[in-house]
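Me: Here is a favour to ask of a fellow structure person. Could you put it straight underneath, so I can go through it closely?

Assistant:
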Amino acid sequence: MQIALYQPDIPQNTGTILRLCACLNVAAHIIEPAGFPVSDRHFRRAGMDYLDQVTISRHDSWRKFEEWRKGAGCRLLLFSTKAARPYLDFRYRPADVLLFGRESAGVPDEVMETADERLVIPVAAGMRSLNVAVSAAMALGEALRQTAHVAANT
């Protein structure tokens, strides 16, 4: 299981997600350009000393990320408020990459269309969305729960 962030633009969220990845031993991918430098104090503060404990791959562009992903044979699961399929009604696999878009704009149509599956975390009527770090934690928790259960039963 891996997490990918498409052009993240809020350093605190990115730092928090990378800390999540470090704590759960999950690799992370940042698809550039990010909206902040990695030296940003908010990014460093949110990630704390965990940033040295996470495997981070930086991809210069969406195209380069896609080349890596296809070569690795990973399925791409996009989490989006525009998706229809609830994330709890999906069967995850250990090699999946969970993709989260920019906090300010999500992902462009090209990325949306490329995803093998588009999933949504349902929220109460009238609410726009959850914070991306919260969404990543919920999605990763469910994906790991399912894949750990599968591994334990094989």
Remarks:
- The two ends are 18 Å apart (CA to CA).
- The chain has one domain: 2-152.
- Helices lie at 11-24, 41-47, 62-72, 109-114, 132-152.
- The mean pLDDT is 90.
